[in-house]
Amino acid sequence: MRYFLFPLFLTLPAAVLAAPPPVAVIADPPADRLHPAAMAAFVIPAPDGALNAVMYRAAGAGPHPTLLLLHGFPGNEQNLDLAQAARRAGWNVLTFHYRGSWGSPGRFSFANCLQDGATALAYLRQPDVIARFGIDPSRIAVAGHSMGGMVAARVGADDPRVIGTFLIDPADFAAIGRGFVDPKKREAFLLGEVRGDMPPLVGTSEEAIMAETAHAGRSLDLVAAMPALAGRPLALIGATRGIGTMAEAAARAARKAGARHLEAEMVETDHSFSDARIALAGRLVTWLEQFQR
């Protein structure tokens, strides 16, 4: 079954999702000697900073559909196995580090991350970038994990030209912030999610991150983004040992908004999909197939 509508939110073991995986997940394509697959590293200019970026260019002359892949907070899991699988399936994939993270110049904040996602999307539509990487600007999708799922949802919601959005155990910072009325939940978020993730970040602090979460508004509200995404292909892949309840809430909102191309699944794994990477790559590649020509 290609699309799932709420209230059906499937909880499936990784082995079920991964059998059989698409060929692009487990095998290299034939080499294209004239237009080989390639990787390019560069910097995307951004206000008060820059984004250290990498393009995984698909083999072939193109034009290629292109995926903007957004990592989470702070980005210890970058999901580059997903980038490689999507490239083997014929997609360009752009990844980058947000301002103030992992050496990208600037100041880190959730608000800046949202802006950085929009900046990267606009970069993909520049004529010189389209020519350089063989991009089909009419086929750009966004995907994101955790905080990157929130960024992807907002980027897709704000730009109707994005053809689809793939969210991997996405984080809803507005919901997290509302939970701070319980001091134990606030402390758990600080100790379990924020404190250990600060070393790769600059221009911020634990206090700044906690304050931004506590006062998160509509731009960081995952559920609020669903009506704008409901008319296009949308995938919400939650993790049972992660924050999958946020994906469930978003899927309910998407269905309420009339989503007709919704895939909503829960995988028995942790937030990083540590024992379900093949399953996750398979789900992404299968989802991307609907946009191939």
TrEMBL record:
Record-annotated AB hydrolase-1 domain positions: 67-274
Q: Which UniProt keywords apply?
A: Hydrolase, Signal
Q: Name one GO molecular function term.
A: carboxylic ester hydrolase activity
Pfam families on file: Abhydrolase_6
* Signal peptide, first to last residue: 1-18
InterPro entries xref list: AB_hydrolase_1, AB_hydrolase_fold, FrsA_esterase
Query: SUPFAM superfamilies under this entry?
Result: alpha/beta-Hydrolases
Q: Which family does it belong to?
A: Belongs to the AB hydrolase superfamily. FUS2 hydrolase family.
Which PANTHER family does the UniProt record give?
DIENELACTONE HYDROLASE DOMAIN-CONTAINING PROTEIN-RELATED (PTHR22946), POLYKETIDE TRANSFERASE AF380 (PTHR22946:SF9)
Full protein name:
Alpha/beta fold hydrolase
Q: What organism, scientifically named, is this protein from?
A: Gluconacetobacter asukensis
